[in-house]
Specification:
By secondary structure, this protein is mainly alpha-helical. The protein is built from 18 helices and six strands. A hairpin with a 2-residue loop joins β1 and β2. α5 packs parallel to α10, α9 runs antiparallel to α10 and α12 runs antiparallel to α13.
Length: 433
């Protein structure tokens, strides 16, 4: 039986022991298929099932001579079986084992990543609801724009990670293809029914057509999906980093008792987890580029992809799993400062309500260009000279000849700017909102 995994065991998928166990399961399944088709005696199959085993050390010893990992593996297993070992690897090629095994490994890695995404999505949903009414300033170009709520940030991330979950499920199905079709994919020395049997037993889909290998556009899609997931996680981490800056300080990472932020400056509390997530995303994206380079191979196959996939397979899946775990912990322990958010929102002394004022003037009959010019004129005065934007506007006779004070004050109400937040939440989360 091929072992199943929990999220904490992602690294185990890629150990030599588990890799060879998977190879052995494939080889035995091939023998079982041949036995059903009458190519292998039933009693020989019984011996293979009973005796087949391997030693990682023995495989490595043989490989030093053969310079070929699959031959070393088959030789080692055949030694454990005895004469019936001659039926191993019958009619198949190395890539039948390697690609089918990789499909299993990436599928199982996907299951772990999918469960991690589901947990993160649940957390983002709860944080979005918790902070639905936590008011803060929205920023474009890093500059104050208009009021939003922290809950809307979490809701956006919730939706993005939900899309990533869908992508990951699709990528799992894309990669879940095996092949037992021989040296160039023509089944020259293996019955197609062997492939059907093996894939069905191992939970895979037979590739409808293959060369010596599963086509690497499937791998490229898979690793690009991991890169998108990593980029979304980086997006969350980068926002935490920005909001933790001293002059902003609207959120911060949890800081454990005894934790140190700097070897030189005792006052430091740095967003090290968020920075770590951002850094790891670069590696996952780089690995996606490597997977794209693997799509184009010589004729029915060369080996240039093999060395690449031995790195990016374990690295990208382990890194994405790690990033999901760390992002979840980051958000679980996130410290939020609503008072600082409100303080920052007021830094521009009301300038963030300028669009509402402009639209009010348009409603009163001014052209958009004229209204924009009037509002901008007063906004620039606040930038230069200070003062409250509302008071500066009320000193402008041209504006006050068009609107009443009550109408003008109405443009500066947070409730007005955020009146559709409930609608957005209900559209996304339904009655839960």
């Amino acid at each position: 039986m091929i072992p199943r995994y929990t999220r904490e065991e992602m690294g185990r998928i890629w150990t030599p022991e588990v890799r060879f166990k998977t190879w052995l399961a494939i080889e035995i399944a091939i023998c079982e298929a041949w036995a059903e088709l009458g190519r292998i005696p039933k009693d020989a199959l019984d011996v293979i099932r009973k005796r087949a085993s391997f030693s990682v050390e023995r495989i490595e010893e043989i490989e030093k001579v053969t310079k070929h990992d699959v031959i070393a593996f088959v030789t080692c297993v055949a030694e454990s079986i005895g004469p019936e070992g001659r039926y191993l690897h019958l009619g198949v090629t190395s890539s039948d084992i390697l690609d089918t095994s990789m499909a299993i490994s990436l599928r199982d890695a996907s299951d772990i990543i999918i469960r991690g995404l589901e947990q993160l999505i649940d957390l983002l949903r709860s944080l979005a609801l918790k902070h639905k009414d936590t008011v803060m300033i929205g920023r474009t170009h890093g500059v104050h724009a208009e009021p939003i709520t922290l809950g809307l940030k979490f809701l956006i991330w919730h939706q993005e990670m939900s899309r990533n979950l869908d992508r990951m499920r699709r990528a799992r199905e894309t990669i879940r293809h095996g092949k037992i079709s021989g040296a160039v994919g023509t089944y020259a020395h293996v019955d197609p029914r062997v492939e059907i049997y093996v894939c069905e037993k191992l939970g895979l889909i037979p590739a409808s057509v293959s060369s010596q290998i599963i086509q690497r556009d499937r791998y490229a899609e898979y690793f690009c999906t991991l890169a998108i997931v990593a980029s979304s996680l980086e997006k969350i981490a980068l926002e935490v980093r920005h909001l933790q800056r001293t002059e902003v300080h609207e959120v911060e990472e949890g800081f454990a008792a005894g934790q140190k932020g700097s070897s030189a400056m005792p006052h430091k509390k740095n967003p090290i987890t968020a920075e770590n997530i951002c850094g790891l995303a670069r590696v996952v994206r780089a690995n996606a580029q490597a997977a794209l380079e693997n799509v184009a191979l010589w004729h029915e196959r060369d080996i240039s992809h093999s060395s690449v996939e031995r790195i990016i397979g374990p690295d990208s899946t382990i890194l994405v799993d790690t990033m999901i775990h760390r992002t979840t912990k980051l958000l679980e322990n996130l410290v939020v400062f609503p008072d600082k958010m409100m303080e920052n929102l007021k830094l521009t002394r009301g300038l963030v309500f300028s669009e509402g004022v402009m639209l009010l003037l348009v409603e009163k009959g001014l052209t958009r260009e004229a209204a924009y010019e009037l509002v901008q004129r007063n906004a620039m005065r606040v930038w230069r000279e200070g003062g409250e934007f509302l008071e500066v506007l009320m000193e402008d006779g041209e504006i006050m000849s068009i609107v009443t004070e009550e109408e003008l004050r109405g443009c500066f109400q947070l409730e007005r700017s955020l009146r559709h937040v409930d609608y957005i939440f209900e559209r996304v989360l339904g009655q839960e909102a």
